[in-house]
Design a protein that fits this description.
Oligomer: single chain
Radius of gyration: 14 Å
Distance between the termini: 10 Å
CATH superfamily: Flavodoxin domain
Number of domains: 1
Number of helices: 5
Shape: globular
Low-confidence stretches: none
Protein name: Flavodoxin
InterPro entries: Flavoprotein-like_sf, FMN_Rdtase-like_dom
Pfam family, one: FMN_red
Strand content: 25-35%
Mean pLDDT: 97
GO molecular function: oxidoreductase activity
Organism: Mycobacterium talmoniae
Number of strands: 7
Largest sheet: 7 strands, mixed
CATH architecture: 3-Layer(aba) Sandwich
Structural class: alpha/beta
Order of helices and strands: EHEHEEHEHEEH
CATH topology: Rossmann fold
Length: 151
Amino acid sequence: MTKSLLIVHHTPSPYCQQLFEAVLSGATDPEIEGVQVVRRPALSVSPADMLDADGYLLGSPANLGYVSGALKHAFDVCYYPILDSTRGRPFGLYLHGNEGTEGAERAVDSITTGLGWTKAAEYVLVSGKPTKNDLEACWELGATVAAQLMG
């Protein structure tokens, strides 16, 4: 049975785009079998998208010490419709911030704890221009969460 990994992202900058592409590349590695990767911009994700997924990758800039308004909107739209149906599902997170990501991390921790999701890997936190190591960490994040769904 094919599992579904949903990448919910807000990618407004070239640096965020680089991180997204690295996460996507890891999640779609040919060695990972039986996992369909679905991508949705945070402003267009629906509760049905979230309910259809078996796991999640979340990507956002950290703006003014918080997740992007787009990712917050995704959770505002989806939180209650998915609240009792997605408990225990794995998720990963990558953030890009120029002046700290702590507030964004706390926000995602709070929301995902409320949903009962399981942190599948360490968060990838990037400041400034992504380095080769940052991009490799994003690739690993994508691959790790997707591989966990292979079961």
